[in-house]
Specification:
Strand order of the largest sheet: 3-4-5
Strand content: 15-25%
Order of helices and strands: EHEHHEHEHE
Structural class: alpha/beta
Largest sheet: 3 strands, parallel
Shape: globular
Number of helices: 5
Distance between the termini: 14 Å
Radius of gyration: 13 Å
Amino acid sequence: MMAAPLLFADAEGLRAAEENGALQPVTAPGAALRYGPLYLKAVVDKALPGKAGEAVIDCGEDVALVLRALAAGWRRVFYSGSPEMALKLESLAEKRGAGLIHGRGIEETDRSERGTKP
């Protein structure tokens, strides 16, 4: 089972995730829509140099947000929409060297349910 997620929306929250290495840094629900994948990627890159690929951006059911996150360079993207769309998005993510995590909610999704590569 994956380490418990620690939700963040800013550099301070992300530093807290880094200080407790057992937790998985994940953007807070709605943060990707509010701040945008590019801004959050810059926060992650600055706060976690060399480890930015470990953070997960939660895009909820928003397909366009998933596409924007992939374009911004996110390596791990969470999507909670339809399984059919998840298969298509997973294919796109793999072509970009990223992984798509699909499930009900990031905090409820066990690693075994995440048919994805980080």
